[in-house]
Amino acid sequence: MNNKLYGNLIFELSKPGRKGYSLPRNEYGNYNMPESMQRQHPAELPECDELTVVRHYTNLSANNFGVDNGFYPLGSCTMKYNPKINEEVSAMPQFTRLHPLQPAETTRGAKEVCQRLKKALCALTGLADFTLKPFAGAHGELTGLMVIRGYHESRGDMARTKVIVPDSAHGTNPASAAVCGLEIVEVKSTADGRVSLDDLKAIVEAEGNNIAAMMMTNPNTLGLFETDIPAIAKLIHDCGGLMYYDGANLNPMLGACRPGDMGFDVMHINLHKTFSTPHGGGGPGSGPVGVRSGLEPFLPFVSPYEAGNFGVVMKAYAYILSLGRQQIKMVGPLATLNANYIKECLKDVYLLPIDGLCKHEFVFDGLKDKSTGVTTMDVAKRLLDYGYHAPTIYFPLLFHESLMIEPTESESKDTIDGFISVMRQIAEEAKTQPDTVKSAPLKTPIGRVDDVLAAKHPIVNYKQMIHDNN
């Protein structure tokens, strides 16, 4: 752990004059580069031999945690395993060597993949058509809201500028609406964590002629199925608005029910979550947007180049083909089974604010025994010592000590039992040795950092670090 190559930056390992490369003989002659394109100063690159570079980045990669090397129960994000066949298919040179500007007649195979994926997504969601252009879930949300706004404006209904968003919604919902130039109206949740029909009726009565849409995630952020969807959809449709489905939690719905059948008009899907493409690290993502019949004209213009992140499209289509019509129906039920199993095994030591059947994820409100002083943050940090990634913490904001767990359908009972055992052990440690839990992690290369300082004063480059240290 204390190896110099392990902990130092590549710039700190640099020695003047060292090289890790050799270039082939120049066979093309010498050409003068325009002065406007030349550097004014030499590139500030580290100088290291090849072996040092290989060891440095290999050691750094061992610090990185992902689904391939451990259980990743991150709630609200569906961090499922990405089968390696998906990677092999997307890496086929017939697809990776495509260029966005090559003649359309030479991309017929890629366009066929896009059309087949759209057809599969329509079958899985109950919608009429999709666009594959959006590059991520939030991009899909914005696209979907622009579809909704375009629909209202096409009818001359310019007053519909308000979007109803539940208080338990993902933060991207109000953000996307605001970017689209729409106003947000928050609807409250009931004590059981679902949308309050009474509060929604009051909003519709007051704002009916101004409502463009209602955005909902189902199951919601607490992992609970919104049982009043038919009544909610009728309220919104009767006042002239449209229903928007945030597809972030689509995973438990696969094989169980379809958003289009529930009354939703527009939705986005996170291909990089529900359909297994690696999720995290800022990308790559893909957020296709689907619409019910009649709204197809408001989708983005379909150019010869249909997909945004085509590699993600390839992986998602490979995933769907690998499972097939019958096996994909098991995704939702198995994700739901795994989540409920963990919940029931831990609710005697962790506080479950809303009891009952959950779907793909659930939320604890910290430890049941609050007298120990051990917080959700402490539990999350202690999990790292046992080789598990922490669940989502302090979200949703409905509970003070939220601990949000989503196992997905990919994990075996053995893996889940191991996680349950460690969670119970941490709960016991909170009683018998709370200082150990409060000072965790103890076995990682870097201990507990000052999150507030890191957020307020981020060190984003090597020069800044040297300056601050001096």
Automatic annotation (TrEMBL):
Pfam families: Aminotran_5, GcvP2_C. One of its GO terms (molecular function) is glycine dehydrogenase (decarboxylating) activity. Its EC number is 1.4.4.2. Keywords: Oxidoreductase, Pyridoxal phosphate. Residues 159-280 form the Aminotransferase class V domain. It catalyses: N(6)-[(R)-lipoyl]-L-lysyl-[glycine-cleavage complex H protein] + glycine + H(+) = N(6)-[(R)-S(8)-aminomethyldihydrolipoyl]-L-lysyl-[glycine-cleavage complex H protein] + CO2. SUPFAM superfamilies: PLP-dependent transferases (SSF53383). Residues 334-432 form the Glycine dehydrogenase C-terminal domain. This is glycine dehydrogenase (aminomethyl-transferring). The gene is gcvPB.
